[in-house]
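Standup notes
- HV: blocked on the assembly model, inputs below
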Amino acid sequence: MIQRTTNFSAGPAVLPVPVLERVQRELLALPGPRASILEISHRSATFKEIMAAAETNLRQLLSIPDNYTVLFLQGGSRLQFSMVPMNLLDGPRAQADYIVTGSWGRHAATEARKFGDVRMAWDGSKANYVCTPADSQIDSSPSSGYTYFVSNETIEGVQFATEPATQNSTLVCDASSDLLHKPLDISQYGLIYACAQKNIGPAGVTIVIMRNDLLARSGDALPGYLSYKSHADGGSLFNTAPTFAIYVVRLVTDWLLNDIGGLEEMHALNKKKANMLYQVIDQSGGFYQGHAQADCRSLMNVVFRLTSDPLSAAFVKEAAEQNLAALVGHRSVGGIRASIYNAMPLEGVEALRDFMIQFRKKNT
Amino acid sequence: MIQRTTNFSAGPAVLPVPVLERVQRELLALPGPRASILEISHRSATFKEIMAAAETNLRQLLSIPDNYTVLFLQGGSRLQFSMVPMNLLDGPRAQADYIVTGSWGRHAATEARKFGDVRMAWDGSKANYVCTPADSQIDSSPSSGYTYFVSNETIEGVQFATEPATQNSTLVCDASSDLLHKPLDISQYGLIYACAQKNIGPAGVTIVIMRNDLLARSGDALPGYLSYKSHADGGSLFNTAPTFAIYVVRLVTDWLLNDIGGLEEMHALNKKKANMLYQVIDQSGGFYQGHAQADCRSLMNVVFRLTSDPLSAAFVKEAAEQNLAALVGHRSVGGIRASIYNAMPLEGVEALRDFMIQFRKKNT
C-alpha cells in the first residue's frame, strides 16, 4: 500500500478517499450489470440511473429550481467559452458584458469576441487581478445578451463573495473552481457551469445548469455538439456521455450529502481551512505576501509569494519532502498556490500551516 | 468477487481484464506522484509521460508516419462531425464528398451541410445500408475539400475491407468502431479519427490522426476548442485533457503490443472470432439472417435477425440468462447485434456460438 501525498494540485485535484475506494472496489464489475462502469452503454438502465442520481444530488445540494436544466457535457471550460456566446448571442442580442477578474475571464472574453461585441463591464487587469469590483464599478448594459463573470479565478486566487449586481437578467458564471463549495441561489443565474476536475470529480465532464427559457436561443445553424438545446433535448445523451466521469460526480455528490452533510457544512469547513492559511500569511510580517486583496481572497486557491524566487523554490522543494505536493504557483503569477478544494481534508491544511510556520522560522 | 458477464455491448464496450485490474490496483495512488490518476495535473510530468506513451504506442501499432499529428480530444464523434468540415473546408474548398454506408455517415453528412456543400459520392441508404460501394461506384471529385467515409458502421455491421479509391488526396475516415482492429496504411488518409469507447478505451476521449499539412486549413475564426491547430499547437493540452481516459488508452495499447503482439495478431484473432459467428448464421438455413452482404460484413459488429421479433426477444432474454449480455440490436435496425471488439476474448465468442446453435435447435 503506497502512502498518499497531501495533494494541493489546482486541478485535476484531490478527491475524497471514500470515493476513490468505492471506484476501486467496483472497478471490475458494478453489481447490477456485472461489467465495469467503463464498459456499460450510456443508454443502459444502470448508467441512466447513475446520471439521474448525479443530477438529483446536484439539484438537492444547490436547491436548483425546476425551471433549470442540468447538462453533463465534454470539452471543459474552453468549450463553454465558445458555447456561451454562440448560443446566447442571437439576432437582437449581439453584445455581451464581461466582468474580468483574472486569467480565465480574460480568455473567455477573447473567445467571445469571435461571436459578438464584447463590452468590458469591468477589467481587473489594470489592478493586476487582485480584486473583484464593487457593484458600483460594474458597467453592465440591460441590452446585452448576458453578463459573464468567473466566480473564482483559480490562477490569481480571487473570488466573488456574492454575485455581482448587474443590469442584466442573464447572469452567466464560470464556477469551474468553486461550484459546490457553498450554497448558491441558482435563481440569480441564467447559466452557471463548472468543469469537474477542480471541485467535483475527474477531468472530462462539465456541468451546465441553465434556465430553460435560454434554450430557445440555441440556433439550428450551430455545430450540433455546441447546441445546449441538442444536449437538453437528448437528456445529455446527444452523444456518448463521459460515463466514468459522471459516475465519479455521482459519488462525490453522495459524499457531500451523506459524509459532509450538505453545502452549509462544506462552506463552514472551507472557511475554516482557508482562514487557517490566510492567518499565517497575515501574521508573517511580510514573509508571506498574499496575491489577492483580503476581501476578495479565494477559499479554494490560496495564492501567495515569498520575498524572493529562490525562497519560493526552496519552499516548494522542502514542502514536497514533507509530503505536501503540487504547491508551485501558476507560471503566469509565480510564487505558491495551495488549492484546498472541498476534498482537501482539514488535516492536510493543518500540515501545510505547520510547515509554513516552521519554514518562516527557519528562514528569518 | 462478482462474476463478470460476457459483454457484447456496442460501446462503451468490453475492456481487457488485465487493463481493468491494473486500473483498479493503481486507483488510489500511482507510484510516482502517490496520488490517483484522477487527481494529478494534466501538466504534471507523470501525466505527460502517460500521454506520450499512449501516442508512442499508437505510432508503433499503426506505423504512423512522422508527418502525422496525433491528438487526444473530447466530444466524441459528434464533435468530429463538425470539426472536420469546419477545419478542412476553407475558402477554395467549399465542397466535400461523403460516402454513406450507414447511420453514422448519414449523421456526419447532415452536420457537414451546415458548413459547406455536401456531395453524396455514394449513398447506401437506397440499398438499406447492407454494403459498401465498389470503387467504380464512387463519384468523388478532386476539387472537393475531402472525401469522408466510415470504415465500420456500428449499427448496420457494414465494414470496408480496404479504403475506398477516390479522386481525392484528403481521405477522412471515422474509424470509431474499428481503429486498431487491424494494421492500416495511414499514409492513405488525410485524417482518421476514433472515439475510444468501442475498441480502444473508455468514453470521453477521441483520437485524431492527421497529416500535418492539413493543420494549415484551421482558420482563426473557429471556436477555439474546435480548431485542430489549437490542439496541435498545445500538444493536446489546449485545455485540461481527459486524463483518466488517456491513461486507459495507454494501458489498452500496452496490452495490444505486449499481450496480443501487435495488430497483425489482433486482426487474425478478430477474423477468427467473426467467422465463428457468421458461419453459424450461414449454416442456419435462414433461422439467422445477417444484415450485411457477405463481402461487407463487419469483424466488429455482427448484426443479424431471427425470423420474428418475439423470437429475437426470446434470444436476447435466454442469452442473458446464460451470462451473454447486451445483444439487443440498435433500435433503428432491430434484431441482434453482437459487438466483438478487440477486447472480447475468443471464449466469449465461443460461448455465444454455442448458444446460437442450441437456441436454433430448440426453436426449429
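- HV (later): unblocked. Chain A has a mean pLDDT of 96. Chain A touches chain B through 65 residues (CB under 8 Å).
- Next: hand off to the docking folks.
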